[in-house]
Amino acid sequence: MQLSSFAATNSPAVVPVVVRDVCKSYAGSGDTVHALAGVSLKVAAGEIVALVGPSGCGKSTLLNLVGCVDLPTSGQVVVDGCVTSDLNDDALTALRRDRVGTIFQFFNLLPALNIFDNIALPLVLRRLPKAQIAARVDAAMAEVDIAEKRAAYPAQISGGQLQRAAIARAIVHDPAIILADEPTGNLDTANGGNVLRLLRALADDGQAILMATHSVEAAAICDRTIRMQDGRIV
Predict the structure, then answer these.
(1) Residues facing residue 51 across a β-bridge
(2) Is the distance from CB of 198 to CB of 167 less than 8 angstroms?
(3) Contacts (Cβ under 8 Å, ≥6 apart) of 134
(4) For residues 63 and 212, is the Cβ–Cβ distance under 8 A?
(5) pLDDT, tens only, 45-104
(6) What's the whole-model pTM score?
(7) Which of 32, 71, 83, 177 is such that its CA lies 20 to 30 A from the CA of 10?
(8) CB 1, CB 197: distance < 8 Å
């Protein structure tokens, strides 16, 4: 499967994801929760890295930091060459919008929008011309083999098709980084395998992908597996 239309556009000299000695703490009811404690990793362009470990080990927290949804308590998260903690809210929002694509376990498609409009959302947020939006959405749907479902609504298509639509939405704006949070966790074996082959093809075409997963099959298609426990890499 060729996905050259959506290969990462960041410079080869820029490592899309760099995490340096990151800690993340949350104030709880009387206690401080240390979600991450001194985590460091890199994800290169063209690489899939799996994060594995038990629930509560810090995988989702790490994805949120790389996805510019949250900021570290200490250490540095560098996304496509930008240190996230150095950015103001507007710049952080722009970085997340333009350079990060996220694939969720439960798809997170908007039920009131058809598949075309769901996929178009990242481009609409960037206020691109309608003709450019249409061309890029059509190309993304063709790449993930869901073009015939453009007018359907999320409730009208299968789980595998929903995840393909979610992947199209994640790549339509040509991000440097794709974050995948249990992307096969809500799919049967056949559809899960199709999604994994699609993610592998995206990486082979140049995307940097960081995937949190409990699936042995998902980890097997990755270039590296990082095991986490109690907020640390083990």
Answers:
(1) 212, 226
(2) yes
(3) none
(4) yes
(5) 999 999 999 988 999 999 999 999 999 999 999 999 999 999 999 999 999 999 999 998
(6) 0.89
(7) 71
(8) yes
